[in-house]
Amino acid sequence: MILDHLQLDQSDPDTAADLLRLGAWAAADLASFDSSGTGSTGRGQRLLDKLLEEAEGLPWDDPFAAQPELRSLFEAESARCRRSDDEVDLWHTALDRCVSADWGWEEAVASWRCAEATARTGSSSETDAMLDRALQLAREMGAKRIERAVVALTASDADQPATP
To answer: How confident is the model at residue 162 (pLDDT cuts 50, 70, 90)?
Structure first.
């Protein structure tokens, strides 16, 4: 499997930080696919563990030092992979940092992922706000993939019983 050959770029901390963030996203997607949202550990958790192992061997103390937004996204994706209790809070932090940095695409992704996390935890009023924000951003940017995912999440959220 390709995951067995994972190696982070050790020549540039910004590249390594971005690869860590993207790797955590892939790990979380694998975990979601493998477990159908139940949080079981499988390929996604192994990928995340491999990323963390590789990160320990990087020649810098903190590859995220120059871009704390990437750290926030990495931490939120890692929490999504693990279905951690602090996932919603981490997505809020990532979202705030992306807004501050004016990272439109990442802001839309963070809004979408925050909506997913709030939907799983049953915080429906917050879910609606996050869904609206993600959909608006996706449409403004022409980000069809995010728009389709948000619309699908909206439809699945509508199928859930309302929480008091």
So the answer is: very low
Q: Whose structure tokens read 């879910």?
A: 127
Q: Measure the CA–CA gap between 78 and 50, rounded to whole angstroms.
A: 12
The full set of domain ranges for the chain reads 8-67, 85-158
Q: Does the structure show a pLDDT above 80 at 43?
A: yes
The pLDDT value given to residue 10: 77
Could you tell me if 98 and 110 are in contact, meaning their C-beta atoms sit under 8 angstroms apart? yes
Block residue for tokens 């159908």: 36
Joined together, the tokens standing for residue 127 give 């879910």
* % residues pLDDT > 90 (the chain): 35
The amino acid that residue 79 corresponds to is A
